[in-house]
């Protein structure tokens, strides 16, 4: 009865979402305070019902109930408990249930926690959120039922994709989905503001924590997903411009632009139209990502659905939501006042330039991702890979970084160009010194990595500019957040540029006892031995490694694993992490003549990529906490920065 109870909870949640929308519509149209007051508890109950449905699905996986089709297709009785739990969303139907659960919980949180918006704007926001939820409830219940029964029950399950049997599965999808849902809430706030013609600082202050939260979780999800693919897939790269990777990057780019705009609107009453439009664009990108991952048009380890009918359903939802939002935007944008003006040379001007460049990069990624899909529909097979994205987006990103460095040094409203140049001298000098140091040490590297390292150094110096000549103990928490987030971008950029410029790779067919070189390391294959895990067996290499001629020897043990359910062979890399980089080793196949394929990489400073991602997320979290604290203080005044 657990499956039936879960399905019943979903149907009830869908019914409450329909009721929530109807009550919001009637309450606003008829100005009925009694009806509007009832919307909050309905949203709260809807959230509880989605949490119940997800908890019941997890219970089915933990119990290995093979009479449920989803469990039989994606689990196994011998699978470790952690992967039984995480496996509940390691598939199409379960991940969609996780999505609507977070969506319902977010709606409940808005209903319970938001008390600063005028009632009509809040109720319109909850009504928009209910419409979004209704579409996904319909998708689950009509085409992706996670509680469908299997008759007769399977003797055991087919197992979970071994590439997903990793702790990353417990962390990566939930963080991304929280980010996506945070964007949907921001979109609902924008719709509510347009419906009630109340686009102003109050709306922006209500939206800002959701944008910040979504941005933080998207950053964490992308960072964790990058590292998960890096160590799990055994290909030695941290980003491949895979369409499904791009599906998470595009909402992040839009959310980054939205974050800057909503902050200007909340504190300076500017960029009103920008804020609303970017909320629509950010949600559009999250819907495009959902379509790419679940439509069946992509073949990727990240993609779930393989049924084109599901893709058609999501495409219809995308057209409905985004088309409706654009129509509403077109009808109501004329009612949005301009807000306060500012000069081109000002911090607002720099933020607008950043938004334009982020939009250009977003357009490049979107076109590069969708063009092969559109071409394939006309019978033309082509591939758009890293060379295109790196050459097209790389230079734009470097210009963006340069403007980002100038932003914190600019004054609000208006500034003087000569004064800006004077304040920029230190970051420029730091960038020049870093570039000169790289050139002297290496004799020259490719132009994009060279500029990346130099600009990263300059951005790091400019990032701490808001702390110059300030009492650090009295510096607001959101200022620390901005500093740390910008510093994190500099750190990540330095890691990306260093990995691109200095990586050394060696591919060898090694015999036992033979030493091989990669970068400053000597790697010797000492033997191959069997290894056994909870639900896999493996061949494990014993690699003795030494750095330089006189370093101490240490051991790495990469594996070639075999999973029986489902039958799959995976490469498990062994990585040595050091202060200045990582040694990455992968065991390949035997040639039958006593030699084993080894892939060896030395990646200087590659860990800065993920360290920077963590700093970006930390900065966003501190900024969110600081803003919430500031706005709850009685002394807070509109327009105070």
From TrEMBL:
GO terms for molecular function: heme binding; heme transmembrane transporter activity; lyase activity. It is found in: Cell inner membrane. It is a multi-pass membrane protein. Residues 315-627 form the Cytochrome c-type biogenesis protein CcmF C-terminal domain. The lineage of its organism: Bacteria, Pseudomonadati, Pseudomonadota, Alphaproteobacteria, Sphingomonadales. Required for the biogenesis of c-type cytochromes. Possible subunit of a heme lyase. InterPro entries: CcmF_C, Cyt_c_assembly, Cyt_c_biogenesis, Cyt_c_biogenesis_CcmF. Residues 89-295 form the Cytochrome c assembly protein domain. Its main location: membrane. GO terms for cellular component: plasma membrane. It comes from Sphingomonas aliaeris. Belongs to the CcmF/CycK/Ccl1/NrfE/CcsA family. GO terms for biological process: cytochrome complex assembly. This is Heme lyase CcmF/NrfE family subunit. The chain crosses the membrane at residues 6-29, 41-62, 96-113, 120-140, 177-197, 209-229, 249-266, 273-293, 313-335, 356-380, 392-412, 424-441, 447-465, 477-497, 605-625.
């Amino acid at each position: 009865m657990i499956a039936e109870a879960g399905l019943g909870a979903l149907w009830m949640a869908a019914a409450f979402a329909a009721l929530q929308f109807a009550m919001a519509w009637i309450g606003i149209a008829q100005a009925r305070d009694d009806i509007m007051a009832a919307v909050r508890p309905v949203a709260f109950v809807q959230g509880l019902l989605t949490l119940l449905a997800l908890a019941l699905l997890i219970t089915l996986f933990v119990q290995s109930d093979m009479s449920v089709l989803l469990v039989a297709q994606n689990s196994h009785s011998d699978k470790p408990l952690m992967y039984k739990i995480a496996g509940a969303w390691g598939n199409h139907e379960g991940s969609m249930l996780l999505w609507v659960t977070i969506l319902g919980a977010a709606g409940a949180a808005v209903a319970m926690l938001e008390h600063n918006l005028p009632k009509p704007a809040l109720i319109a926001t909850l009504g928009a959120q209910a419409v979004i939820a209704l579409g996904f409830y319909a998708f689950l219940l009509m085409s992706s039922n996670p509680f469908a029964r299997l008759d007769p029950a399977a003797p055991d399950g087919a197992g979970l994709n071994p590439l997903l049997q990793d702790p990353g599965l417990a962390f990566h999808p939930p963080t991304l989905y929280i980010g996506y849902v945070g964007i949907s809430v921001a979109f609902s706030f924008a719709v509510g503001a347009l419906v009630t013609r109340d686009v102003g600082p109050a709306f922006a202050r209500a939206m800002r924590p959701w944008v910040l939260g979504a941005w933080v979780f998207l950053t964490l999800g992308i960072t964790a997903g990058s590292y998960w693919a890096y160590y799990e897939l055994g290909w030695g790269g941290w980003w491949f411009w895979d369409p499904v990777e791009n599906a998470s990057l595009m909402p992040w780019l839009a959310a980054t632009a939205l974050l800057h705009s909503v902050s200007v609107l909340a504190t300076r009453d500017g960029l009103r139209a920008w804020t609303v439009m970017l909320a629509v664009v950010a949600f559009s990108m999250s819907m495009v990502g959902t379509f790419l991952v679940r439509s069946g048009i992509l073949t990727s380890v990240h993609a779930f659905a393989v049924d084109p009918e599901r893709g058609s359903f999501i495409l219809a939802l995308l057209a409905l939501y985004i088309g409706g939002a654009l129509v509403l935007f077109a009808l109501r944008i004329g009612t949005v006042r301009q807000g306060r003006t500012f000069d081109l040379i000002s911090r607002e001007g720099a933020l607008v330039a950043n938004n334009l460049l982020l939009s250009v990069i977003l357009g490049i990624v979107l076109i590069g991702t969708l063009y092969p899909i559109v071409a394939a529909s006309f019978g033309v097979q082509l591939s758009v890979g890293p060379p295109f994205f790196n050459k097209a987006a790389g230079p734009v990103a470097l210009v963006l970084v340069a403007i980002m460095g100038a932003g914190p040094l600019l004054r609000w409203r208006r500034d003087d160009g000569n004064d800006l140049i004077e304040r920029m001298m230190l970051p420029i000098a730091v960038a020049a010194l870093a570039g000169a140091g790289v050139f002297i040490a290496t004799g020259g590297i490719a132009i994009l990595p060279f500029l990346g390292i130099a600009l990263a150094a300059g951005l790091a110096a400019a990032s701490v500019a808001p702390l110059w000549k300030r009492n650090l103990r009295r510096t607001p928490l959101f200022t620390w957040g901005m500093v740390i987030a910008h510093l994190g971008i500099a750190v990540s950029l330095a890691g990306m540029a260093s990995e691109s410029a200095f990586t050394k790779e060696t591919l060898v067919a090694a015999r036992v006892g033979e030493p091989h070189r990669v970068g400053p390391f000597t790697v010797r294959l000492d033997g191959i031995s069997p290894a056994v895990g909870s639900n896999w067996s493996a061949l494990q290499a014993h690699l003795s490694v030494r750095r330089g001629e006189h370093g101490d020897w240490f051991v790495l043990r990469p594996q070639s694993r075999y999973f029986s359910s489902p039958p799959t062979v995976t490469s498990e890399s062994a990585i040595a992490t050091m202060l200045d980089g990582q040694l990455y080793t992968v065991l390949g196949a035997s040639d039958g003549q006593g030699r084993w394929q080894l892939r060896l990489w030395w990646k200087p400073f590659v860990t800065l990529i993920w360290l920077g991602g963590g700093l970006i997320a930390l900065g966003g979290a501190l900024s969110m906490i600081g803003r919430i604290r500031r706005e709850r203080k009685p002394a807070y005044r509109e327009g105070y920065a």
